[in-house]
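Lecture notes, structural biology module. Today: joint structure prediction for complexes of two components.
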Amino acid sequence: MKRRTFLQTSSIVTLPFMLRGMAVTTVGKSSLMNLISPENDKILVLVQMVGGNDGLNTFIPLDKYEQLVKVRGDILLPESKVLKVRNENAFHRNLTGFKGLYDEGKMSIIQSVSYPNQNRSHFRSTDIWTSASDSDDFVTSGWLGRYFDVNHYQFPVGYPNAQYKDPFAITMGNVVSETCQGTVSNFSSTLNDPSKLIQIYETEASTSQDGYYGDELEYLKNSVRQSNEYSKTIADAFDSGRNMASYPETNLATQLKNTARLISGGLSTKIYVVSLGGFDTHANQTNGTDTLTGEHADLMQTLGDAIAAFQNDLKALGVEQRVMGMTFSEFGRRIKANNSFGTDHGTAAPVFVFGSCAKGGIVGENPNITDNVTDDEGVAMQYDFRSVYASLLIDWFGVPRLEVESILFKDFQHIPIVEGCSLTDVEQEELIIEAKIFPNPAQNSATLTFKSNGGSVHVAIYNVIGSLLKTVMDKKVSAGNHEMSIVLNDLPVGSYFVRIVEATRQKTLKLVITK
Amino acid sequence: MIKNPHDFMSSVAVPMKFSYNQSLAQKYTYLQSWARYQALLQMDSFELPSVAGWKAYYQTPSFYRGWINAVTLPARVQFSTALLVRGNVTGGINQRIDVVAFLKTLPNPGNIDSVITTLNDLMFAKPFTSSQITSMKKTFNPGKSDADWATEYQAMINAPNDEAARRNIENKFALLLAYMTYMPEFQLI
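The predicted structure, tokenised, for the full assembly:
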């Protein structure tokens, strides 16, 4: 079989890898590109909550309310005023928008999302969330940038073109999102006000130049051309699109309103990034002891109302099944409140996935909050944020699992958050693994028991600020009950978390060591 | 290296000798409009986006390419267009670079090739190509020759009170300068 014929007939699954391995010249402008995806018209909207959201006041674990009163009574909402969704959970009072989506089954809440060794620096942690790297690894491309890189590694040279007329991604605002940073260039186009786009006069080009000067000049030339061409398609989509729901008068709502209008106008952009700042609530998170108002309460109102309006609009426009949204923030905040009616940088926080194709419901258990919370203790991680990314790439964009591994550098636990419109068949999956640890408090060792379905089991110990201290097990086991002893005499007295993961199931247990 | 917003704005205003002669209150109003432009170009004065500063100074791998995107690039064009061609109207005052005064400071203003070369040296890192110069001439002085420029310039000098002659040179020269600021090369230092 000729190489070309082979490529044309081989499955889409292997194609991107073949393309990457081939010399550029052999790709040419063949029909290869036609085989790759565009029929997947799914769109992902990322809502970045800049500053580190206080998850414990966003989605409140009511079963831990007593403990929370003790450590964050200053800022905790009264139990009678929160929006209960189950006996054990409640949204912030101002998240009526989220409550509505949850009740309609259009919101999945993934509890305690973070990564091992949470860095707790805004910048580094934002880099980690946008690049999907390990906390000790420095990766300069973004996770969605790598997703686009697979098929469009030459970007921005030659884009837009007849087949890809529209930007791959749009960041609402003046700064491109690092999530869309590819190895060469950022795949996202910034957009402020789609009603006021202008064309840049294109001047006569000089001959190509060598060196850094030449590189930067090429970048600028491309930017001018691209800005002009994308402006046209964006303006066209904006003109032919419309909104069918009313939105609140906030910046976030406007960003989402424009997003909905561009989608309804037929823009084929796959990723939109919108953002809301102000989550770094070290002080005045609440209005003094009036915990129902304050900065965080305002943010919750803005967030919930904007997203609910967006979802209403998408439904009215008839594009609801094409759009999925996801919130993210660089870290959660500490369990204990500080003395300024605020909270400091913490570890994990819930991620909200919304859309009519979201599975709905709550994934994971409520955060483990005990009576002896230390000052710097954060909510322990249950799910790695890259599991959320991986699950969206697989179930929403239909990216083959192997390719997801190459985009995210390794295999991550699959979380069932997409349902109905999913491209892959999602089986009903168990989410929680049965596990116990005793004695607790323990001294030199403890015993962990768990019931395996058979497969790889990973057990690791974290400290209260989310640092991975040691992996105590990482191997395949047979189905059935297992018991293992964990040596603890190398760890000082204190509180720890033991996290056990097997395929889609996991559990995070708190362990106290005494001597 | 790509100019940061402040560099960019200064590189239009300073070499072309932008000046304003106003009351202190008007100056404040006016400079506020500049601050707003700089903010739009993503370098809000005294308002760092984070404690780490501006992304262009630390964010790998794009670094100062981060100043340039589909919002800021058109905004740069709008800024130089306002200053050179349209005028920047703020607080009821229309400020525009006095391009004729600037032209007169150049060594040989009646010779368009000399003017272009001088501007090239003044504002750009590398020489223009001949096709770029041809394109500039076609754009700012369509259908006219180099000799026509010399004649029209001399006509303005000979008749200091002839408003039409002055405006003719002003409009053309403003277009030439605007063309140069639109060049991707102008974004580089």
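Point to remember: Chain A touches chain B through 41 residues (CB under 8 Å).
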